[in-house]
Design goal:
The chain has about 200 residues and is α+β, with helices and mostly antiparallel strands. It has helices spanning about 15-20, 40-50, 110, 190-204, and strands at about 5-10, 20-30, 30-40, 55-60, 65-75, 80-90, 95-105, 115-120, 125-130, 135-140, 150, 160-165, 170-175.
Length: about 200
């Protein structure tokens, strides 16, 4: 996969840039001031679809090629078009605070028994060297039964990662099946008017 992103100076309005296939980009970190540029939306979408945690070679106007990672992405809610991207310059020899997405594997035994899987946390905050970054963290949840839950403290140790998310944070739980009330049996319930009618007959 091509992980080189060429940045250009912004020109014109943000809307006109997007209509031409470019997306606004902010670059910061590694001791440099925050700078605003534009980048090809197609290139960024390709990177995001394959490995959103890839280490990028970013070509900055007048500054040469720098290493960077994607830290934040904003998309249009309906059509999911890119609206804005934050790039963080990195020092390959210095720790980086970032996020890694969970990739859940296995079918929980509790779900097979009718339970409901509820995901409460989708990403993990970590500190690591750039060359230890991965696109996602694989988590096997096949052993979770109804009533079980998985906390950050239950995650296996990952070499080179310092987990920053609190250990008592809930990741996923298997809740009991949803219980729906059965409708009342209308055959056993007397119509509201029957009692009044019987009372009237008795009075007669």
């Amino acid at each position: 996969m091509n992980t080189t992103v060429r940045l250009t100076e912004r020109s014109g309005s943000t809307s006109s840039q997007r209509s031409k296939g470019f997306v606004p980009v902010v670059v910061y970190g590694a001791g440099s001031d925050t700078q605003s540029f534009s980048a090809d939306a197609k290139t960024l979408n390709e990177i995001l679809s394959k490995n959103p945690r890839a280490i990028l070679k970013v070509e900055l106007p007048g500054s040469g090629i720098k290493n960077a990672v994607i830290q934040e992405v904003q998309r249009q809610p309906l059509n999911r078009n890119l609206l804005h991207v934050d790039l963080q310059q990195i020092d390959m020899k210095a720790d980086l605070d970032t996020k890694v997405a969970f990739h859940f594997t296995g079918d929980p035994v509790g779900v097979k028994s009718g339970g409901v899987q509820q995901v409460e946390l989708y990403e993990l905050d970590i500190r690591t060297l750039p060359d230890k970054l991965e696109a996602s963290m694989e988590v096997d949840i096949s052993g979770l039964d109804i009533g079980d839950q998985l906390l950050v403290s239950d995650l296996p140790k990952h070499e080179g990662w310092e987990i920053l998310t609190p250990e008592d944070t809930l990741i996923v739980r298997i809740s009991p099946p949803l219980v729906t009330e059965e409708p009342a049996d209308q055959d056993t319930a007397a119509p509201a008017g029957d009692g009044a009618a019987e009372a009237a007959k008795t009075e007669e």
